[in-house]
Amino acid sequence: MDFILVLAKIQPKEGCQDSIVELAKELVYESLLEEGNIDYQLLKSSEDDTLTFVEKWESPEILKKHMASPHFLNFGEESGEFVENMDIQVIGAEEIKF
Description:
Elements: E1 2-12, H1 17-33, E2 37-44, E3 51-57, H2 60-67, H3 70-79, E4 83-94
Antiparallel strand pairs: 1-3, 1-4, 2-3
Helix pairs in contact: 1-3
């Protein structure tokens, strides 16, 4: 199965990790309900305050729709003041079946 993998790594400003996690609750919940979403998780690093969204989407077109959704735009707007740095990777992938 081909899919789009998104890794969105967020470095929160000092003391702001909890604020980002709280804002992400609605984003993750609503994103999992979207047509064409395969998986959507927020992971917390065990080494530092880094948070990483790990997302799987059926196609680039569906990812584009997600990025225009109210919950995605709302998260970006509300979390901006808490984010020090963000790195986003979008990868076209194919699962290797054993």
